[in-house]
Amino acid sequence: QGAKYRGSIHDFPGFDPNQDAEALYTAMKGFGSDKEAILDIITSRSNRQRQEICQSYKSLYGKDLIADLKYELTGKFERLIVGLMRPPAYCDAKEIKDAISGIGTDEKCLIEILASRTNEQMHQLVAAYKDAYERDLEADIIGDTSGHFQKMLVVLLQGTREEDDVVSEDLVQQDVQDLYEAGELKWGTDEAQFIYILGNRSKQHLRLVFDEYLKTTGKPIEASIRGELSGDFEKLMLAVVKCIRSTPEYFAERLFKAMKGLGTRDNTLIRIMVSRSELDMLDIREIFRTKYEKSLYSMIKNDTSGEYKKSLLKLCGGDDDAAGQFFPEAAQVAYQMWELSAVARVELKGTVRPANDFNPDADAKALRKAMKGLGTDEDTIIDIITHRSNAQRQQIRQTFKSHFGRDLMTDLKSEISGDLARLILGLMMPPAHYDAKQLKKAMEGAGTDEKALIEILATRTNAEIRAINEAYKEDYHKSLEDALSSDTSGHFRRILISLATGNREEGGENLDQAREDAQVRPPEIADTPSGDKTSLETRFMTILCTRSYPHLRRVFQEFIKMTNYDVEHTIKKEMSGDVRDAFVAIVQSVKNKPLFFADKLYKSMKGAGTDEKTLTRIMVSRSEIDLLNIRREFIEKYDKSLHQAIEGDTSGDFLKALLALCGGED
Fold first, then answer.
1. Which pTM does this prediction carry?
2. Tens digits of per-residue pLDDT, 297-309?
3. At residue 149, what are phi and psi to the nearest 5 degrees?
4. CA distances from residue 3 to 205, 280, 288 in whole angstroms, order as listed
5. Domain check: are 267 and 320 in the same one?
6. Are residues 319 and 403 in the same domain?
7. Is 358 within a domain?
8. Residue 55 and residue 97: Cα distance in Å, rounded?
9. Statement to judge: residues 230 and 172 lie in one domain
10. Which of 103, 252, 273, 303 is least enclosed, having the fewest CB within 10 Å?
11. Are the CB atoms for 645 and 362 separated by under 8 Å?
């Protein structure tokens, strides 16, 4: 951004501190206070100007302005206004003092402040803390924290991160090797290496380290941190990495999480809006808009009320364009984020792997014993079936038949029931036959489960689709295409049949073709006379159902560049019903398939009641493909692990089996 100012609050033109001090005094005089006048003055002045108002107020009235504001105001509004009146370093010092005072520690507050501040801000914070509380900040943090978490906080507190933009390629390679050896290649983890490198190297240097780390190891540094570290130390290191990559993006994410779901984390919201209003609020707004497809302004507006809301909206500095549309700078941010995601080829990993020392004979006998006689040993069944790969399960089925002359699936059906039976029997089927059965069930009886049809057909590879077609024909003596034709209609049917052919192109991107494909857009964006919605759906279908994933990613990038719109939002706006849902699923799958499934899992468990069918279908079908990646996306987006969500939403043997498939707590 260079030296360009990116704050939302500016010096007020024609500023007169005495006039403002008098207006504030008048607003607080007598019975009640004029909150509107207070918020209007304080949110329209820069921090430097507010300090001058404090001085004038004391000179004119012999009183402390902050003390008077505290007396007159209450609650969140008071906290926000008083926060704005303090110099930034003193505001940070007060937040940290509150975080470590009393019983318990607010680790999230410590992490947010110490992971995000520059060297200069850190030095000012330490001095402000000493001045305000006559205490040593480092000593207080040491007294209130422990272990590696404490060590990293102390390193950050020194404010000695290198600031040289000239990067040594040799040192980058050395740091990549040191981090890899300290984590992935070591039994246990050498936390000191992580602390030294992430706590001291320059931002420019570390960005190159992260790029090289991905190329060398096949996984982003965040994945290694999650795998090697734990607790508050892990959260701190992840925050440091996020701030190295992009401090505004870190704060955009913190703001979103502070307001999403039930309840608002007001302390976090206030702290960020106050501390970033004169630094990078415009960047935060752009990234927020890009990442969450809604403006920061609209989210604050819907999530807060009264003078508190008005003050926050003034700090936000303006509403960005309507949902789905990017203002020009944000379109560029979106495009750059796409570029980065296209570079990051993350290896897909399942949670279920072939068992070592696999013995189908022993497993078949153990399963027979678990089902013989009175009662059933569900624990043994769960333990064996969730810890074998699908190929190994097929061997167990064959061995079971050879030994006992019985069909394992039939025996399991007679011994277990309900959600557990659906899950275990699903795991026992070859993947293509399982998907074929799910499609058949979605089309059986009265009504059609369109969501299941979309989920399966929009996300499977060509090879998987072809295998499903064969399995469907073998199991139900009817082609999948015929079944879809007789159970769906119109454009939705055409989309599903196109996907069910398994003929998606498999090459890379073609830039000229991508630019041509990106020009398929609604009339009001294209500035042409209103077109036929049917022909628009047909054109979208020919591109979304047939082009390769790498090519479509490029199309989406070009679409943003040409229109300032995100293709997903355009679909949601222009289309409806099952056609819209199918296209959105394809786009989300192309953008980030594990995230698509993470969202589906979250929705299957949120609110009253659980959608066990969707939960089971995804856990079964993704367990050997990308469930580990889905877990990472889940915790990243929803701030809780998939393991925790399952634990809170299911019970009994079904819970045990799901947790075994989940493969661990993140």
1. 0.70
2. 999 999 999 999 9
3. -60, -50
4. 21, 12, 22
5. yes
6. no
7. no
8. 25
9. yes
10. 103
11. no
